[in-house]
Amino acid sequence: MTVKWILHWTPTPGSVVNSQILSEISQCVESFVNAVKDGRWKATLTFYRPNLRDQSIPSEFPRDFLGISLLEQPNKYYFIIRGNKIILEADSTILTIMEKLQSYKSKVALNFEGVQYKMGDFQMKVVKVVPNQAESLRGILIEIEYLPLSSIEKAKPIMEEFLEVWREVMSKKSLPGHFTQTEPHFAEYKLPDNYTSQHTAIQYAAALAQLIQSAQLRG
Amino acid sequence: MQQQSQQAPPPHSTSTPPPAPPSSTGGSAAEAPPKQVALAMDKLGEAERIIADIRIGADRVLEALFVAASEPRHGTKPLQLFLKEDACMRRYLQDLRSLGKELEESGVRSRKDFWGLHMPLVCPDGTMVGYAWKRQLAGQAGASAVDRTRLALKAFTDQKRRFFPHLDCGLETNESASKKRCGSVESTLDPKEESSILKMLPDVLKSVEKEVPNLKILTFERLDWLKRASTLNSSTNENSVDHSYPGSNKLRLGSLGTVATEKVAVIEMLVPSTFRVVISLHPAGSTDPDAVAFFAPEESGSYVHARGFSVHHVFRHITDYAATALQYFLGNQVESSLYCLLHWICSYQTLFSRPCSKCSRLLAADKQSAFLLPPVLRPYWQFSLSKILSTISTKDHTSDITPAYHLGCFSEEL
């Protein structure tokens, strides 16, 4: 799989994330490096909470138990426990099992809806984070992908420089905020250097956690 | 009807002896294949004719029966017809049987793949079989002709080399000579001897592998490469050099066994996680490259060959440039073109990490497409045999000082 980097939009303190910023960012991408719109993309993220009768012993159960589904892996479902740095790639039929077992209930579900752009050997996605049932924009992410490489280490210098170029372009627009990258700590999840969808899932989970954190800080 | 029932059953066998060419049984094995094939073709033609006769005979029998049934007043005429046809049919069937036996004995009709090819199954409709057999035999004749020609050519070149050594062949490396040399090559030699040693393909590959760590070189026959190209993605463990292609003669460097150096036509070089290069040699077994192409390490498919193009822009640009470099090496470094080419390719190990020597950046926009590309140009004229040897001996292998340029930066530099 090709290497991807995911960054989340951090608004400057005091400003909000709204659809205008999203369209500005999209415009930026579209005019950047001869980009060509390449299609739509979707992923979902669900927070699970244990289904307990007795609510007094919640501490034994993980608090940050997430499930992620990705468009590029329709037959897989990814479980992440961020606290213990565990990721599990399961078959998508696990959802039926969970439904039957009823041991965990879905607390919050979020959708990632993205538009993909292709620019030579690079690909970018502009992703908006919306809750499952509503339309309000909760966050913006971008995903950068370099197609020729699959080794995370080898792709690092290239991705860094691409990001620099991207940031330069963004700074011209003087939007209230910037993109930050959360260090995904792949090694702690015991993942190899070769990029896989598991890496993608971890990055999205990390980005979302950051978004939630910064949202909580703001208000 | 009652007339027919009164008749005695017609005679079983006929008096006509089966047509038998004099050399059919047993003697055919001693004849040359073309004659066997020609005879077999004749017999098949005959079988076809007999089968056609049988079909016509069957039609006549049916006609006779029909006439006899519909108009009984014709008397014994339909009966005579029927008897005659019956006798003919039995004769034809007998002929066919014996012909089949002959063909079996001469090895054509056996299921045991006498000439190494599968015979088609017998169809219920007799005519199809003859045609299919003819096609099969023609194919066998063709295959055996190619084999025989190849053997004849080999014998000829061997004899020529033996009796007329002063005539320069120059094309194919003699298998025994290369093996002898391989056994006695040491790691350090003075340049003059080394340049002559580098004429041999295994030596070139071995020395490059030694000089450039972290590089994997594999060699293939041309058809074997096509098989491998489509399955490159499945062999994701790049450490395993063992491939399960039965009968493929791969030159394993480090284990110079009885491998066919003269059949090597494709060289694959893999720098793990960075790129894969496919080089084609012409003629096979020589040290003359004739095409080179770069691909991403994960690319696989039938388009991954020395004249193919990667789907990625960066590797497409490098492949274009490599064609120019190849022509340069073939023209200016005639003796060591492959060696120089391989070393030049190795300078691309830093493709994704070394910034351009002119603008000091890693990515720059290509003028035509505006896509961001790493520096894809590395000057090839710096690679000559003497220069490579001197750089290898004077410094350690890990540092590589080849400058790199973006497409746009380079033209200004020149």
Question: Features of this protein?
Answer:
heterodimer, A: 219 residues, alpha+beta, nine-stranded antiparallel sheet, 9 strands, 37% strand, B: 414 residues, four-stranded antiparallel sheet, two-stranded antiparallel sheet, elongated, disordered N terminus, Mediator_Med20 (chain A), transcription (chain A), Mediator of RNA polymerase II transcription subunit 20 (chain A), nucleus (chain A)
Brief rundown of the structure:
The complex is a heterodimer of chains A (219) and B (414). Chain A has 219 residues and is an alpha+beta fold.
Question: What order do the helices and strands come in, and which of them pair?
Answer:
The complex is a heterodimer of chains A (219) and B (414).
Chain A: E1 3-11, H1 19-30, E2 36-50, E3 65-70, E4 76-81, E5 86-91, H2 94-101, E6 104-119, E7 122-131, E8 139-146, H3 152-173, E9 177-181, H4 197-218
Antiparallel strand pairs in A: 1-8, 1-9, 2-3, 2-6, 3-4, 4-5, 6-7, 7-8
Chain B: H1 2-6, H2 33-70, H3 77-105, H4 126-163, H5 175-184, H6 191-197, H7 201-211, E1 216-220, H8 222-229, E2 266-271, E3 275-281, E4 289-295, H9 313-332, H10 337-346, E5 364-365, E6 372-373, H11 385-394, H12 407-413
Antiparallel strand pairs in B: 1-2, 2-3, 3-4, 5-6
Subcellular location (chain A): Nucleus
Main location (chain A): nucleus
Protein name (chain A): Mediator of RNA polymerase II transcription subunit 20
Structural category of chain B is: alpha+beta
What is the gyration radius of chain B calculated from CA atoms? 34 Å
Tally of DSSP β-strands of chain B = 6
* Mean pLDDT level of chain B: 71
Q: Spatial order of the strands in the main sheet of chain B?
A: 1-2-3-4
Number of helices of chain B: 12
Explain this structure.
- The complex is a heterodimer of chains A (219) and B (414).
- Chain A has 219 residues and is α+β, with helices and mostly antiparallel strands.
- Chain A contains four helices and nine strands; from the N terminus they run βαββββαβββαβα.
- In chain A, strands 5-4-3-2-6-7-8-1-9 form a nine-stranded antiparallel sheet, with helices on both faces.
- In chain A, a hairpin with a 5-residue loop joins strand 3 and strand 4.
- The N and C termini of chain A lie far apart (38 Å).
- Chain B has 414 residues and is of the alpha+beta class.
- In chain B, the strands form two sheets. Chain B has a four-stranded antiparallel sheet. In chain B, strands 5-6 form a two-stranded antiparallel ribbon.
- In chain B, helix 2 runs antiparallel to helix 3, helix 2 packs antiparallel against helix 4 and helix 9 packs antiparallel against helix 10.
- At the A-B interface, helix 3 of A face helix 9 and strand 6 of B.
